[in-house]
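Dear colleague,

Thank you for sharing your sequence with our group. We've completed the structure prediction you requested, and as agreed, I am returning the results in plain text so they can be pasted directly into your records. Please verify that the sequence below matches your submission; if there's any discrepancy, let me know and we will rerun it promptly.
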Amino acid sequence: MDDDRIKPLIQKAIDKLGSQEALGRACGCSQNKIWLAKDRGKVDADLAILIEAATDGEVKARDLRPDLPWPAYASAEMAASA
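Please find the predicted structure tokens below.
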């Protein structure tokens, strides 16, 4: 995974929600988990799906984790049903 490609996507999600804390709340995790993801440029698959849902699809799970075989339609729909 290219950390330099992922960090701006995480920042875009943070900007959309207003803060790391707000993104964490929307994703059901701590601000610290969001900070670590941004600092390291890595997210787990579950967080990628939650970020996509929290940003109304503006930041795609498949872009956050391009190493995984995402179905073209599934990521946002999976989060919406969770």
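Summary note from our side: Residues 20 and 80 are 21 Å apart (CA to CA).

Kind regards,
the structure core
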